[in-house]
Amino acid sequence: MLAILDYEAGNQTSVSRALSSLDIANAVTADADALLSAEGVIFPGVGAAGQAMDLLRSRGLDAVLRRIAAGSVPLLGICLGCQIMLEHSEEGDTKTLGLFKGVTRRFADDLEDENGDRIRIPHMGWNSAPRRRASRLFDGIPQDAEFYFVHSYYVDPEPEAVLATTDYGKTFCSAIGRDGLWAVQFHAEKSGRFGLKLLRNFYEYCREVADAQ
């Protein structure tokens, strides 16, 4: 079973529905024991970094996430869950989890598209995320596959953590991680068949890890 972290940051229901459509057993929970004993954990979210971190800290879930990341339970962050995996966010000048080195930054207001037109913030809609290095998370997903984005901030991690990038006024990192610890800026649960394939890939990896223990 996959556990979906419940910290009142929204979007848990959409993730649960996507997993259920794949016949993947899942539960939305804030219980530390349930999270630590799950086959894998998904850390989604929409909203503000500061409020999310306050909620995580107030429930001790920041420490639980660090234990998960340091242990054998695979973890997947989505959108806000991706952004607050880094050390710091410019949104509210917020200290975040520090699972990856780097900073979450706001898109500059003066960015332009390829035609010289000012881009709109937030970045909202479909866009590709071509890979910079191979990852189990993207197995069977074409390089030109598009995913659904809604965000005003983007992750700027250490270079070795970058898995995929996306162009929107600038080239930014849209997926980070290593086997067993991943995060994506786009909403996989709202990204059609390729988003569902990514969630399936994560689950299959989780099963392999569980079977090997």
Descriptive tags:
alpha/beta, 28% strand, seven-stranded mixed beta sheet, 29% helix, four-stranded mixed beta sheet
How is this structure best described in words?
- This protein has 213 residues and is of the alpha/beta class.
- 29% of the residues lie in helices and 28% in strands.
- The chain contains six helices and 13 strands.
- The chain has helices at residues 12-21, 32-37, 49-58, 61-70, 80-83, 192-212; strands at 2-5, 26-29, 40-43, 75-78, 88-89, 94-95, 102-106, 123-128, 146-151, 153-157, 162-167, 171-178, 181-184.
- Strand 5 and strand 6 (94-95) form a beta hairpin.
- The protein is globular, with a radius of gyration of 16 Å.
- 44% of the residues are buried.
- The model has no long low-confidence stretch (mean pLDDT 96).
Number of helices: 6
Please give the oligomerization state of what you see: single chain
Helical percentage: 25-40%
What distance separates the N and C termini? 15 Å
Sketch the topology as an H/E string, one letter per element: EHEHEHHEHEEEEEEEEEH
Structural class: alpha/beta
Measured by DSSP, the beta-strand proportion falls in 25-35%
Spatially, the strands of the biggest sheet line up as 2-1-3-4-13-12-11
In total, the number of strands is 13
> What characterizes the major β-sheet?
7 strands, mixed
Topology diagram in text:
Blueprint lengths: L1 E4 L6 H10 L4 E4 L2 H6 L2 E4 L5 H10 L2 H10 L4 E4 L1 H4 L4 E2 L4 E2 L6 E5 L16 E6 L17 E6 L1 E5 L4 E6 L3 E8 L2 E4 L7 H21 L1
Parallel strand pairs: 1-2, 1-3, 3-4, 4-13, 5-7
Antiparallel strand pairs: 5-6, 7-10, 8-9, 11-12, 12-13
